[in-house]
What does this fold into?
Amino acid sequence: MIDVVIAGAGPNGLMLACELALAGARPLVLERLAEPASEHRANGLVGQVVRMLDRRGLYERLTAPGAAPEPAPGFVFGAFPLDLHDLPDNPLYTLAVPQHRIEQMLADRAAELGVEIRRGHEVTGLTQGEKSVTIELREREPIEAAFLVGADGGHSVVRKLSGIDFPGVTRDDSVSLTGHASVPRDMVGADGGLVVPGFGVVPPFRHLRTERGMFTWAPFPGRDPLISAAEWGQPADGDASLEELRAGVSRVLGADVPLGPPTGPGPHLMRRLFGGNTRIASRYRAGRVFLLGDAAHVHSAIGGPGLNLGLQDAVNLGWKLATELRGDAPEGLLDTYESERLPVARRVTMHTQAQSLLIRPGGDVTALRELFGELLALPATRQHIADLLSGADITYDMGAETGPLVGRWAPDLPGLRELTRTGRPLLLDPTGTLDAGPWAQQVDTVTVPELDTALLLRPDCYVAWQGTTAEGLHEALGTWVKSVGARAVPMPGVLRA
It folds into this structure.
């Protein structure tokens, strides 16, 4: 019997497969498509996941050997420039890498870890038993697994077969066209801005809101520029084409931009989207079935939060499933996947809905933007939004444990990016005297003299305990790491936002 079947070989499913294999489980990835998707999708990564990949040794695979992430000096929020250079603690990291490269890197890593990926395997049904779930496939023999994870996108078959509701809202009053195109060389300024006669300079990699819609100019290095025009009140018909994109840009800017066909290597994007969905699954688990990524939540892509949310779902779920499969899981551990990650999805949908409102045309929105622009001049506001976009504001409930770092993602510490590559729990001890007791085989204890406090890190790099003495350490270990003969501690409640 397979340990975990993952339906979907996108980034989220592949990340989960890597995390499971790293923890000693045997996952099997099933993908409906016979070949990897060729169309252009996400343009990169935004948020805490950039550092999470670094802590698994994967960041340099997408950049250069030995490279380490650096915080972004600026970003965007609701078509406002977000200046981050003066923040005392800038948590926002970005990585401009096409999604197909991220998928290939994760597929390569999964193969190194012994993960099998079967393409052309479409899930059509499932039956749950007391100790396993049977997955039915189109024109293939059923597969039995201890657990099934649906990482099969916003139209998730696994979610529907599991009877999990997907409540939310659908908006159908906007039309956006996005595509790769070329522009005359003399329209691109030295700083990468687009010089539009009759309008002015459009800064690169920012959402530009006008009273007629929104325009985006993204000149990615080594690739054709990605151009987008969003409008409200336009007819929702017709095919996506270069001519339609040019017409939309002209209406939004009130000036013509002579777009030409892309000239560089593909894949190239030309897409029209009508409206949008904001939905979150009513639950992330139904017995032995779990939901991950877009199967659990869909929202506007504004600000690029999707992969940060989905890949962090995978990192949260992977070690918990592996611990359960080993028989080491404290009671209720698997339920903390939903109690921790579902509130995070709510925060992401909250800020994407807020940004979607701020980019709409109209005098009332203009007034709101004037006030919001004043608030953005305050460093405290920009810090709050940077924390929100990156996920640095997440605090999980670790029960009775206290300390300023408890429940939060571990800060960058000396040598941490090497220590976390194994995906095991870590006890970081500045004194070299702490004893993990019955949990010693499940936890890596490392002496870190540079620390002024000891830290217990879960495999997903969240701090489960902090202290200068051993007080409370064994209680925390009993909560998150089960050991024979050790006292079990009830799992804590839900996330504190």
